[in-house]
Amino acid sequence: MIASSIFPIGLVAFFVLYFTDNEHIVERLWSSEENVMYTLLALNLVLIGVVIFQFIKMKNLSVVSLNEEQEDEIEVKKYRVFSDMIVCSNVSISLSVLAFGLGFIWFRDSGPWLALNAFFLLIGSFVVANLAFSSGRKVYPDRESPSTSEDMLDVLDDGEKFVVLEGLHKAYQLLIPFLYMCIMASVFYTAVSGHSQIFSIVLMTIILIAVQMTYGIVVRNR
Amino acid sequence: MKSRLKELRAREGWNQTELAKRAKISRQTVSLIEREEYMPSLLIAVRLSRLFREPIENIFIFEEEEL
């Protein structure tokens, strides 16, 4: 919901700024590369902090003694905290990959410590992602941790599969139009700025085709 | 489809977690069925029917036009 509203607003803001400002707003925005890096690193640190905080919260939830009525409430809380941890750790990994990539491009010669910091945060993000997944044992104490995605589907019961399907369907519906929008934005950016984005456009198109073909083949062969 | 799961669970004095353990399903599935957001599989319906000692059609009630 938040992502789906931020992206179109950001895209519209970008084009409005571009057409109303003749001094190349894009160059001005990206001229302060250090600011971008610091912002990404700070965001990443906050997300890692949130996951650690939720991990501690989850530990405390598990030791609370409760009566029958409270038991359901605690189970709901545990599940929500677990889901939040997974989302935050996944976003943290994505942001740290971006920070590391940008750090490598911009600062590999002038200030490699910035790229190095991003790399350490990437490792930190993987560590907290591991913490988040390990919390699954508190939510599902009777289950073995699945090792593959097929195993994961096997351990879920019908109701949980229904929830996963709903989530995946929404994600798929979001992904396809977003990729089309990104391709169009990159084409437009290449045309007006002169900075070639052809490599990214081709990659995004490959992802688009791969995702749609995978879905189509899985559905067709059943 | 209407579900009498919540009512029957209350009759037995079980919470969702307890019912989930007895029916060998997740608490999330119990909650989804109670909120009538999910129609259970035949296997789950039979398990619930045995647990509550009620026929399936007394637990899950369909409108005539749904059948």
Unreliable residue stretches of chain A: none
Number of domains of chain A: 2
Measure the end-to-end span of chain B: 10 Å
Shape of chain B: globular
CATH H-tier superfamily of chain B: lambda repressor-like DNA-binding domains
What does this structure look like?
The complex is a heterodimer of chains A (222) and B (67). With 222 residues, chain A is mainly alpha-helical. Chain A folds into two domains: 32-144, Topoisomerase I, Chain A, domain 4; 146-222. Chain A has nine helices and no strands. In chain A, helix 3 runs parallel beside helix 5 (112-134), helix 4 runs antiparallel to helix 5 (112-134) and helix 8 (158-193) packs antiparallel against helix 9. The longest helix of chain A is centred in the middle third of the chain and has 40 residues, at 68-107. Chain B is mainly α. Chain B contains five helices and two strands, in the order E-H-H-H-H-H-E. Chain B has helices at 5-12, 16-23, 27-34, 42-52, 56-59, and strands at residues 2-3, 60-61. The mean pLDDT of chain B is 90. The A-B interface holds A 68-69, 71-72, 75-76, 79, 140, 156-160, 162-163 and B 15-18, 25-33, 38, 40-41, 43-44.
List keywords for this structure.
heterodimer; A: 222 residues; mainly alpha; Topoisomerase I, Chain A, domain 4; 2 domains; 86% helix; B: 67 residues; 434 Repressor (Amino-terminal Domain); 5 helices; 58% helix; 6% strand
Brief digest:
The complex is a heterodimer of chains A (222) and B (67). Chain A has 222 residues and is mainly α.
Describe how the helices and strands are arranged:
The complex is a heterodimer of chains A (222) and B (67).
Chain A lengths: L1 H19 L4 H7 L1 H31 L4 H40 L4 H23 L1 H4 L9 H7 L2 H36 L4 H23 L2
Helix pairs in contact in A: 3-4, 3-5, 4-5, 8-9
Chain B lengths: L1 E2 L1 H8 L3 H8 L3 H8 L7 H11 L3 H4 E2 L6
Antiparallel strand pairs in B: 1-2
Helix pairs in contact in B: 2-3
